[in-house]
Design brief:
Distance between the termini: 21 Å
Shape: globular
Order of helices and strands: EEHHH
Number of helices: 3
Helix content: 40-55%
Oligomer: single chain
Largest sheet: 2 strands, antiparallel
Strand content: 5-15%
Strand order of the largest sheet: 1-2
Number of strands: 2
């Protein structure tokens, strides 16, 4: 999946220093917590708007972003248990380190 980190994942506008990561499935869903499919880089105002969306609006966004099959796969993956190994966590730290 090719990502555009210069444009807001919600409105498509250019990003600035207010950019935040918005998760489709929240932090409690550790199986997809750091999954790129579960994350959008968005403006802070878009992030606040996302929190106010009802479930049908969120579902439309997920389908636009991932397609129907991708949205279904992410939903299924979000329900699975995940026990992270130390090596996996170290890999994530290195991958997302600034």
């Amino acid at each position: 999946m090719r990502r555009n980190f210069r444009a807001c994942g919600m409105c498509g506008g250019p990003l600035d220093d207010t950019a935040q990561v918005s998760h489709i499935y929240g932090r409690a869903n550790l199986s997809v917590r750091w999954d790129p499919r579960n994350c959008d880089l968005v403006h802070d105002r878009c992030h606040r708007e996302w929190e106010g969306y009802d479930r049908s609006q969120r579902n439309e966004h997920i389908v636009r972003k991932l397609g129907r099959d991708g949205a279904a796969a992410l939903s299924l993956d979000s329900t699975k248990s995940k026990k992270w190994t130390d090596d996996e966590l170290d890999g994530l730290i290195n991958k997302f380190k600034l």
